[in-house]
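Exercise 7 asks you to align residues with tokens for two separate proteins.
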Amino acid sequence: MSTHSRTSTGHLRKAFWEGHSPPFGNSPTRPCAILRSVRWVPPLRPRARLAFLWDLTGALLFGIFSGMVIPFLGVTARRMGASPFLVSLVVAGPAVGLLLAAYWSVVVAGRNPVPYLVWPGVLARSLFLLTPAITHPDAFAVLVLAYHAVNGITTPAYAATVQLLYPQESRGTLLGLVRTGLSCASILGSLLAGPLLERFGPQVVLPAAALFGVAGALAYSRIRPPRLPASPPRPSLREVWHAAWADGRFRWVLVATFAFGFGGWTMAPALPLLLVDVLQARHTQVGILAAISNAASVVGFFLWGRTIDQSSGLTTLRRALVLSPLTPLLYALAPSAWVALMPAAADGFLIAAVELAWMTTTMELAPPHLVVHYAGAYTSLIGVRGILAPLLAGVLLESLGPRPVLLLSAAWMAAAGATAWLRLRP
């Protein structure tokens, strides 16, 4: 990270740490005393520790929600009678919101990002309260797409919030701890949801999960970021893309992660069909697979977060992309749902690296006033590949089935690994 980047953000962090009004109620001492005794939390000023506490609280609640909902969306749609193409649309849902990320990054820039983190999250997760009224797969697909479209607003808002709250020297560790908590909660949610879905169905389980998601979004409303200095005029979307693409090192980050993501989104719609049609997996088995993946993420967030702090986000991203083809290859070769535990674990471990590394790499390479725009450009490309790849996969699944599509996914990820090895040198 450049000297310019480090010094320009220092006054924002200092303002947050040394502000005069407590951000969470009137007595910040007690929670800080609790956190101070936890040795794995890096040394932070009291107000930054409180921000970490609320970030972790929101992540835990969202983790329960996501563990109970996200792993089962494609499987639920398939069991409602969705065609492979409609399953692909359901799986492509996150891309709808991420495609708009560059626009929202411009809106968030120079503003307090917390409201853009809280209220879209509340609205998006509340949509699953409508599940009891939905019995047709088309309507279920619309609900999932609407959720992701609204929830996507929170992505650039969270990146901006993290930049303000966490010091650069311990950001990787703190993000790793938050994501570890989220993954642990997701494990619990997935293990609970599998048997509950078999007994009560999605019309009961998904609305119950939505309550945890709404509570998680509201937890972030307790964060009070520092008062922002006067910001320069907001750039246009064209200027955002030009700035991100003109940065030679970040351009190769975009190219490599686009290939990796295209492979991941190609794999995503193939997995529900592999599990339901080929491996005959039950809801409980799907929940166990999701739990194993999240357990691997817990280990990954801990190890990769420390790797980032000891080396860099760029180095970590490079390593993860080189290893990424293992996941679809192992899925393609799995003869049973229980053997699929291996690629599920590999997926969780490597996704933890990419999730931490892309954000820290963005903060390392981007000028401070353009961090949110680099993040917006990155997440918008997730949207592009997240729409195109599942649609292509949906067409191929109709004629080829899931295993050949998984091999195609591995080829895309191999291209990403080769690009990362050759171009993303520290």
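Second protein for Exercise 7:
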Amino acid sequence: MKRDEEGSVLLLIIGFAIVLLAMVAVVVDVSAVVLAKRAAASAADGAASAAAQQLDRAALLTSGLDAGLPLDPEAVRRTVADYQRTSLSAQPGLILEVTVTGAVATVTATRVVRLPLGAPGSPSSTRVTAVATVRSPAVGP
């Protein structure tokens, strides 16, 4: 064996180990973000489904079924706030925002996710957002 080639295999193994550890860190961080995004989407869907049940009975009595089934904006906000309180134990930092337009409610779920193995020089957290839109139950002939 030539004297100038000693230790070259060791350098290759160290290089491959560094690349492998970097790939594992990326996979773990991406998995954390994907799982947080799915959880935020689930919370937005659940809050939107609960919000769709909050009909504005006074508007329904005054305008009848011709205008569809309008949602009560205050009842929708209370329902989404209740849903957020119950979701905080499973998803700390979850923020649910809702907008109501007639018979349509849109819930936006936002959460900051700490990256478990953030690489040096990269951000240690990221924000995930999910949106769910729901219409009050339809009334047909």
